[in-house]
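FAQ

Q: What does a record look like?
A: Structure on top, sequence underneath. For example:
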């Protein structure tokens, strides 16, 4: 990952000094993976990385690779450091989506500089993924696929939802997944009608099973959902829901082309579900960007006229939820490319798996 180049892009993009403190943004710009750090970036000029004694050694190597960046490591008195590094600056932007109210007010009082709210500056740079980032996302997606293909060998009707979630994590780790930062959603039977169901001690049984899970490779997240019928003949209504959602998802993926508003992808899915009479049972938006954060811009939702761009990576995940009966969601990660959408998650979409 070329951090120096990313920092230069930020230097060129800002008109006033910006204090970067959101951890995914620090990771993007410097490779830093600690829990406390700040990068003060001056337009076209010297940057300063600030962290505490726990991360000094890690930061040294990263900062050395950045160029035109100095390092300040404090062991006490954070505000003394901020007063010193901001001396003489007319204004400082804080990341409006990442700082606490108390930090912003303390910053103003302690440094004498009234901070300005700067939302989304680094996130806009992060939106377009380069080849290294797409490779990491593809590797994370492949680990998720490996988990799905192992499903048949680890799931019995007695396996509990939670156990199956742990098995999925285990299989992703064996296939290159470095961590799984959220518990897989494993929802059996009627539980699948709750989009963000909390998996429990219930055995999965042999009918409907909805899985939504992912892992992290080099800081980049995967996110996928599949819904299957484990054994025997599926219930007629659920089988019809499955056909509708699959058709909707395929229409959504086909709409992932550069220049097309994000809202069009949502509408492509919605239109199919409307035809089946299920639009009101589609309880969430169609998708989201995915990268260093599991949910990040661009937002694939109704009415968003923000056009898709080459290098965006988004999920397409329509779902239909019928209380007391069950639900179906199918989710893939898709890269926006000039020629055709490139789907990173490759798991098959057969409803009946035995
Ligand atoms: Zn998702």
């Amino acid at each position: 990952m070329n951090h120096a180049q990313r920092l230069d892009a930020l230097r060129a993009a800002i008109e006033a000094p910006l204090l970067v403190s959101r951890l995914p943004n620090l990771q993007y710009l410097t490779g830093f993976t600690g829990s406390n750090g700040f990068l003060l970036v001056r337009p076209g000029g010297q940057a300063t990385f600030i962290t505490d004694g726990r991360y000094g050694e890690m930061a040294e190597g990263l900062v050395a690779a950045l160029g035109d960046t100095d390092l300040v490591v404090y062991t006490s008195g954070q505000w003394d450091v901020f007063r010193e590094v901001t001396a003489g600056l007319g204004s400082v932007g804080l990341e409006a989506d990442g700082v606490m109210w108390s930090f912003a007010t303390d910053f103003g009082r302690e440094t004498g500089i009234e901070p300005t709210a700067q939302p989304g500056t680094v996130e806009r740079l992060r939106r377009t993924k380069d080849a290294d980032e797409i490779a990491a996302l593809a590797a994370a997606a492949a680990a998720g696929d490996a988990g799905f293909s192992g499903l048949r060998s680890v799931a019995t009707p007695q396996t509990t939802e939670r156990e199956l979630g742990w098995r999925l994590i285990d299989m992703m780790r064996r296939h290159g997944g470095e961590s799984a930062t959220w518990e897989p959603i494993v929802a059996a039977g009627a539980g699948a009608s709750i989009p963000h169901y909390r998996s429990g001690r219930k055995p999965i049984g042999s009918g409907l099973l909805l899985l939504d899970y992912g892992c992290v490779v080099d800081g980049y997240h995967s996110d996928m959902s599949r819904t299957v019928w484990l054994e025997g003949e599926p219930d007629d209504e659920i089988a019809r829901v499955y056909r509708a959602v699959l058709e909707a998802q395929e229409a959504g993926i086909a709409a992932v082309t550069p220049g097309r508003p994000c809202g069009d992808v949502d509408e492509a899915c919605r239109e199919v579900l409307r035809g089946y009479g299920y639009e009101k049972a589609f309880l969430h938006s169609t998708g989201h960007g995915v990268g260093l954060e599991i949910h990040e811009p661009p937002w694939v939702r109704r009415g968003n006229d923000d056009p898709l761009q080459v290098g965006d990576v988004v999920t397409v995940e329509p779902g239909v939820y019928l209380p007391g009966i069950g639900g179906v969601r199918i989710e893939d990660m898709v890269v926006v490319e000039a020629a055709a959408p490139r789907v990173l998650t490759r798991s098959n979409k057969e409803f009946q798996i035995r």
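Q: Is there anything notable about this one?
A: Residues 223, 288, 315, 317, 331 surround zinc ion (CB under 6 Å).
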